[in-house]
Automatic annotation (TrEMBL), chain A:
Keywords: Cell cycle, Cell division, Mitosis, Nucleus. It comes from the Eukaryota. This is Mitotic spindle assembly checkpoint protein MAD2A. One of its GO terms (biological process) is cell division. Residues 11-194 form the HORMA domain. Pfam families: HORMA. Belongs to the MAD2 family. SUPFAM superfamilies: The spindle assembly checkpoint protein mad2. It is found in: Nucleus. The keyword Cell division applies. Gene3D superfamilies: HORMA domain (3.30.900.10). GO terms for cellular component: kinetochore; mitotic spindle assembly checkpoint MAD1-MAD2 complex; nucleoplasm.
From TrEMBL, chain B:
Residues 50-212 form the BUB1 N-terminal domain. The keyword Zinc does not apply. GO terms for biological process: meiotic sister chromatid cohesion, centromeric; mitotic spindle assembly checkpoint signaling. The keyword Metal-binding does not apply. One of its GO terms (cellular component) is nucleus. It comes from Scophthalmus maximus. GO terms for molecular function: protein kinase activity. InterPro entries: Bub1/Mad3 (IPR015661), Mad3/Bub1_I (IPR013212). This is BUB1 mitotic checkpoint serine/threonine kinase Bb.
Amino acid sequence: MTSTLKGITLKGSAELVAEFFSFGINSILYQRGIYPPETFTRITHYDMSLQLTTDPKLKNYLTNVVSQLKEWLFECTVQKLVLVITCLETSEVLERWQFDIECDKSAKESSAPREKSIKTIQDEIRSVIRQITATITFLPLLETPCAFDLLVYTDKDLLVPDKWEESGPNIINQSEEVRLRSFTTSIHKVNSMVAYKRTDSV
Amino acid sequence: MAEGGDVEWELSKENIQPLRRGRAISALHQALSQQQEGHSSATNQQRQAFECELRMYDGEDPLDVWDRYIKWTEQTFPQGGKESNLATLLERAVTRFTDEKKYHEDPRYVHLWIKFAENCPEPLDIYRFMQAQGIGVTQASFYIAWSEEYENQGNCRKADLVFQEGFKKCAEPNDKLLQFHKALQARVSRRAMMDVEEEESDNEPKEPERVSLADLKHRGKKKAIAPVNRTGPAIRSVSGGLQSRGTSILGNASNSRLMIFDETKTQSAGPSEPKLESWMAPPTSRAKENEQRPEKWSDVKIPQKSKFGHTVMAPPPPKPTFQPFVEESDQPPTMTPCKINPAVNTVLSARKPCREETPLKRLQDHHHQQREGEAGKPQEQSMYCKELLLSGAVEFSFEELRAERHFKKTAQESEVRRQRDQANASTAN
């Protein structure tokens, strides 16, 4: 019994990673000012204070995405999650937050829990979110009102659910890319990266 | 977990000034790694190269060099500060082209002005100056920056007026101006909405507040216990305490004209009571107790030089009747250490810029001087290439300029020789 407390199963891992995306997306939306700051409320999670949206529509949308994502994480069919920030007027892509997900598919066969405590995983997640917050030191100011979009890359053979549609990659040309920290639950590994428009192209 | 140099920027994130246009991550890495080793010669060389280019440039577009130099400085010195020399650079660049009409509507030049204004203590003055000079008056970015400054100072009406001015002047790009104007309106209306909401919530019945130093009705029969609820009916007499005591004293000495100030009473007298009185004198800057006021030292004498050359000290105090203990090894100091009188200090100290000398003031002076020069008034004329020596952010010497010219010449000559050699070789073939 004690060993199950310390280890992590596929289900638990999927939940942890989905939770990270929920908080991570919320932080990005807050930090980059996509939604007005007064529509966020502060909560404490991972031993740090995080901003969570209170906008009902956005909340609903994010819950939908995250629960779908959790399913895919559990099936190990998701490869990437990308948050794209576009200019509302020109729909030009200004920023692209990319989270590459590496799934260990062998975890689907053996249900034995892996040896990694939740605390260490959460510590790793915390440093990723900290780094997301710190990126404002070099990211350009988003001067225009912006919209965001979430893209999920899955395995090719997967059926697209009703509420989802296929889309292009929305890549920025002439971009500057910065790798951020990564974390792993030993089943899912998440590498983060942010791309933004290069300065001299302005 | 930590990926090598990638954590570098995170460790010094507090020391990186955010830029409107963002930073190139490679330049940032380089700058931060150089900082740890101290500024390398590569940075200095690059700066020297820019300084040289500023002086030797003889093309069509001298602003280009300045623009590149300033952008490089921003990226290379992420923490800004004196070392980067950015403020001086901006000021020099901006003053340099004030009279060149061809740059007045150049977006690069206008951006330099805006950056310069943001570095100044009074940006609004700079924007007004720009308007008066006709710099950037058809550029949308000028009006946007000006309006943002007003908005930051909380003057949304003026911020809106600036946009109106921009529309009147048909500033380009027009859609950008429109977009920012719309965003401003949205922000203002949202703020107004929030204020209304707050006021509405203020109108709700207030929680009764506790009064300080109020007499409470005690609870309990045998033992007096303070009540848990200490508002409203639990207070014995809100304003009575002071009054009752005051009257009893007054009763004893009926003749005294002593008035007792009662805070609660004056408040209830009506809201019209507080009058707006003009300050007779500005409030003292520091509310400090036990502070000694400066006063005239009329009875203090400055030690004067006698004819023997040494200073005459004030007559020593009468010798004490006891023998003070002096340690054997201890040499009594011949003189008490005191601050050297700055008037007789032989060491030259750097002249401090006087307070009035703001960048804008300097700019106006510069402008004024040039006007006078145009008007034909006799003006100082330096008989050397002063412009070239001082034009950059760093001062150059004649030798540096000469060396630069020499290198250029030799490079040209060797180039010509090489071409001639090649030509000879081809004809020989």
